[in-house]
């Protein structure tokens, strides 16, 4: 196999002496993006009632964001590489804030839909710019591990924070504040403009790979939209099968075009062909299947089955966030410079799988302390071990001109994994519930038992996916333990030796 050895670069202190301050603002931007994935879910019932949105149309409030975000990430990452990551970061922040303000002031469904689409567009520029800025700011192994521990904790635990914040804002203020809250966060993050590493102007005139953009965007739109429709239409419907088939054909065509014909490819295949980075993308994509499923089904379990309020449901997710913070920020950041990444990612996936397995045995009358709490702690600890090293190695050893597209690729993995996982697990849950209720009386206790039966089936599948992911990553990610190089280049990233 090939050997990836990054060229010598300045030490972290020389490249960005204000890198720790920059981490604060980059982390805020990432938190805003991750919050928006779950915070709007809490606000949706109130928004639906306030704006008169039909039950058939309400899913578009979520889908409009995921479609534009997931499909434009690769383009956003390449734009950040070509035009400057700091510039892309600021444009993404201000655009996201403006779109959020528009959504908060929405007078009708169309206005809210337009705002959510714009949020996704600017998030597709902001997310890869933020991760690539982090990549170029932290180059020394130990500092990089700590920085990516913080970033990984935000990526894995921010969704649970969104549930808490969304519940509080919806119950005590108004659903519109679930969108307005992004404005002050974006303004504060934008104040860190001067702490970010300066953009390096290239003497080469870059041109966007237009055929690659068209193939990637249309392929990703088809896949993400197909998965979102699978929840309501079923996986065997003509619409879903058609969309997924077209999406797969377009994405395969994209890979073939990038590898054979593109002069300046949107996604150079060297980025994903590296086994360390490819395994990191796989780990992120498959781990979020469990994470998104847990948020979805536990939210319904606590609110519908256990009759928790929105605020109490959000608070009940806090142990998961605590587990992520402890694992990513405390354990993974200390071990990452010392051990091979798969020695963190594989145990992380298996720990997460043990948490979802615990939920398989959940019943309607199971107490929070014996049912939900242990599972949340296990999933939180596991996801922290997965996300910190996966985010690190997703951009490790890439050429400077590819940092943005590598960052976009890991974000795309997360979006695609979340879309497919949510649709797949929700289909399994609803069909299992329907089968359970088919020949039973529709009394409230039976309905609750039917819901829990569906959740259990979904968690069983999520567990199997996580175990399969652990096996795959264990076999593929053969990057050895990082080692410190002697001499003046010791602050550069350690070489990644493959095969």
From TrEMBL:
InterPro entries: EmrB-like, MFS, MFS_dom, MFS_trans_sf. It holds the Pfam family MFS_1. It is a multi-pass membrane protein. Keywords: Antibiotic resistance, Cell membrane, Membrane, Transmembrane, Transmembrane helix, Transport. The chain crosses the membrane at residues 20-44, 59-76, 88-111, 117-136, 148-169, 175-196, 208-226, 238-257, 278-302, 308-331, 343-361, 457-477. It comes from the Bacteria. Its main location: membrane. It is found in: Cell membrane. GO terms for molecular function: transmembrane transporter activity. GO terms for cellular component: plasma membrane. Residues 22-481 form the Major facilitator superfamily (MFS) profile domain. PANTHER family: BLR6921 PROTEIN (PTHR42718:SF46), MAJOR FACILITATOR SUPERFAMILY MULTIDRUG TRANSPORTER MFSC (PTHR42718). This is MFS transporter. It comes from Streptomyces armeniacus.
């Amino acid at each position: 196999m090939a050997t990836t050895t990054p060229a010598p670069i300045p030490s972290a202190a020389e490249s960005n002496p204000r890198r720790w301050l920059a981490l604060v603002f980059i982390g805020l931007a990432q938190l805003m993006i991750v919050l928006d994935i779950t915070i709007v879910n809490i606000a949706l019932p109130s928004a639906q009632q306030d704006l008169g949105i039909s039950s058939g149309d309400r899913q578009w409030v979520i889908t409009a964001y995921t479609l534009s975000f997931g499909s434009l990430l690769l383009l956003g990452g390449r734009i950040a590489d070509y035009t400057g990551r700091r510039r892309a970061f600021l444009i993404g922040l201000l655009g996201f804030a403006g779109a959020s303000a528009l959504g908060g002031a929405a007078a009708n469904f169309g206005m809210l839909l337009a705002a959510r689409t714009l949020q996704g567009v600017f998030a597709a520029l902001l997310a890869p710019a933020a991760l690539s800025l982090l990549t170029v700011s932290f180059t020394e192994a130990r500092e990089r591990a700590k920085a990516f521990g913080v970033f990984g904790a935000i990526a894995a635990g921010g969704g649970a924070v969104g549930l808490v914040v969304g519940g509080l804002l919806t119950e005590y203020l108004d659903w519109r504040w679930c969108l307005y809250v992004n404005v002050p966060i974006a303004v504060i993050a934008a104040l860190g403009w001067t702490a970010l590493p300066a953009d390096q102007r290239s003497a080469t005139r870059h041109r966007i790979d237009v055929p690659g953009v068209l193939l990637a965007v249309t392929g990703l739109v088809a896949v993400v939209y197909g998965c979102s429709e699978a929840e309501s239409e079923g996986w065997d419907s003509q619409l879903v099968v058609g969309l997924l088939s077209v999406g797969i054909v377009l994405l395969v065509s994209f890979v073939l075009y990038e590898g054979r014909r593109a002069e300046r490819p949107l996604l150079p295949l060297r980025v994903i062909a590296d086994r360390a980075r490819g395994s990191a993308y796989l780990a992120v994509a498959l781990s979020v299947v469990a994470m998104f499923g847990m948020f979805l089904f536990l939210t319904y379990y606590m609110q519908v089955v256990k009759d928790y309020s929105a605020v109490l449901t959000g608070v009940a997710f806090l142990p998961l966030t605590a587990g992520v913070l402890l694992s990513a920020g405390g354990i993974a950041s200390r071990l990452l410079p010392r051990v091979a990444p798969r020695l963190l990612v594989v145990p992380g996936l298996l720990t997460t799988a043990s948490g979802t397995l615990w939920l398989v045995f959940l019943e309607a009358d199971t107490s929070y302390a014996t049912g939900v709490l242990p599972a949340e702690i296990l999933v939180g600890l596991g996801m922290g071990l997965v996300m910190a090293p996966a985010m690190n190695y997703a951009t490790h050893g890439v050429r400077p001109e590819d940092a943005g597209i590598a960052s976009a690729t890991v974000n795309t993995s997360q979006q695609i994994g979340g879309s497919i996982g949510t649709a797949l697990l929700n289909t399994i849950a609803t069909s299992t519930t329907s089968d359970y209720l088919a020949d039973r009386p529709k009394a409230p206790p039976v309905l609750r038992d039917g819901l829990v039966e569906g959740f259990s089936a979904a968690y069983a599948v999520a567990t199997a996916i996580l175990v399969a992911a652990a096996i795959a990553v264990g076999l593929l990610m053969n990057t050895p333990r990082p080692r410190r190089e002697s001499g003046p280049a010791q602050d550069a990233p350690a070489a990644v030796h493959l095969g």
